[in-house]
């Protein structure tokens, strides 16, 4: 089945390149740009809607790549999960059947035993410091830990902080979490965090969470304000605890196989475009975070602000006991 898909894709790609190279014999298109050179179209998978901040970042990346490669690369952004759930996208990137994607860093823990450090609870105190590290050498080094997995990490995007929400009761202390059934992303670390709080963890794909909340299969989930809002979770899960326990970022990725096919100069263009798109993405992030927070309150969500997070920090100590040593060097690099 996979072989068939691959050979079909290879044929389609070949036909596409030939057609682009022929270019209908016209040397200049409508806006006067030369189309004598072939243009390669790459697909970028995105599981959020069209105007979500990560999609805005993806599109800026696409625009910059096109500009920097003089139109030799044309990136089409497929938003709204059209190309599949995150785990499927990652498999397809590894196979090279999808060329680019934006995913969250938590599912990447299965491809790098080090990148999980970014999901350690209450790791970052200061967002500016966090972004200085993620946009700098440490961030690139962490992305480099994906080498050999079939994935090439290009840049980090903002995803703010994740908090818990549920449909059963307001939660202000870790004790209130006891017995709740909480959906998590598929990772041992995510499960360990929820279990350290005395709740039960149910790993599930993002696209399945709304109906699982609605039908009561799970009591709650955890995410940032923009996802809680745009995925509609607020409609069926009114109690949101603002305890920002995890600052895992998003990641812009390329399939290693497409990366290996790029010239040195084009790799440089893709890397620069990725890093330059971060600012636009982060600006959009800040705007939607505020807007989403207001909108869910307006719609009736009850926010429980946690002013003193020390009880929550103490409660997740078992997670540091279990994973702290594995991530010790990275924790130091990211926080000192
Ligand atoms: C969002 C993230 C998505 C997805 C989702 C989830 O914050 O942007 O890519 O990972 O969380 O909880 O599955």
Word description of this protein:
The structure is a single chain. By secondary structure, the protein is α/β, with parallel strands linked by helices. The protein contains 14 helices and eleven strands. Strands 2-1-3-10-4 form a five-stranded mixed β-sheet. Strands 8-5-9-11 form a four-stranded mixed β-sheet. Helix 2 runs antiparallel to helix 11 and helix 6 runs antiparallel to helix 13. The site of beta-D-galactopyranuronic acid has 11 residues, from strand 3.
Strand order of the largest sheet: 2-1-3-10-4
Strand content: 15-25%
Give the structural class: alpha/beta
Mean pLDDT equals 91
Instruction: List SSEs in N-to-C order.
Output: HEHEHEHHEEEHEHEHHEEHHEHHH
Largest β-sheet summary:
5 strands, mixed
Small molecules bound in the structure, each named once: beta-D-galactopyranuronic acid
Q: Give Rg in angstroms.
A: 21 Å
Shape: globular
Contiguous uncertain segments of 5+ residues: 1-36
How many separate helices? 14
Total count of strands: 11
Q: What share of residues is helical?
A: 40-55%
N-to-C CA distance = 49 Å
């Amino acid at each position: 089945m996979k072989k068939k898909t691959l050979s079909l894709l290879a044929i389609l790609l070949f036909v596409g390149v030939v057609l682009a190279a022929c270019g209908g014999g016209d040397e200049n298109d409508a806006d006067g740009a030369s189309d004598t050179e072939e243009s390669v179209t790459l697909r970028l998978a995105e599981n959020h809607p069209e105007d979500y901040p990560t999609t805005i970042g993806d599109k800026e990346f696409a625009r910059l790549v096109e500009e920097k490669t003089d139109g030799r690369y044309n990136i089409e952004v497929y938003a709204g999960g059209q190309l599949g759930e995150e785990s499927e996208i990652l498999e397809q990137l590894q196979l090279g059947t999808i060329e680019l994607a934006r995913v969250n860093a938590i599912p990447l823990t299965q491809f790098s035993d080090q990148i999980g450090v970014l999901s350690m609870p209450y790791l970052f105190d200061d967002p500016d410091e966090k972004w200085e590290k993620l946009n700098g050498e440490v961030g690139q080094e962490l992305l480099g830990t994906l080498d050999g997995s079939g994935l090439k990490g290009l840049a980090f995007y903002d995803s703010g902080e994740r908090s818990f929400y549920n449909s059963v009761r307001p939660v202000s202390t870790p004790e209130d979490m006891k017995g709740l059934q909480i959906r998590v992303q598929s990772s041992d670390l995510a499960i360990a965090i929820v279990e350290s709080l005395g709740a039960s963890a149910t790993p599930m794909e993002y696209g399945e969470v709304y109906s699982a909340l609605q039908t009561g299969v799970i009591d709650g989930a955890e995410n940032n304000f923009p996802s809680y809002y745009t995925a509609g979770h607020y409609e069926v899960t009114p109690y949101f605890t603002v305890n920002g326990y995890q600052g895992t970022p998003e990641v812009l990725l390329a399939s290693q196989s497409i990366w290996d096919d790029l010239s040195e100069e084009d790799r440089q263009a893709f890397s620069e475009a990725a890093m330059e798109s971060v600012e636009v993405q982060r600006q959009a992030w800040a705007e939607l975070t505020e807007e989403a927070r207001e909108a869910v309150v307006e719609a009736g969500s009850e926010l429980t602000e946690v002013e003193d997070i020390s009880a929550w920090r103490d409660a997740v100590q078992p997670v540091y006991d279990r994973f702290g040593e594995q991530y010790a060097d990275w924790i130091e690099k990211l926080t000192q």
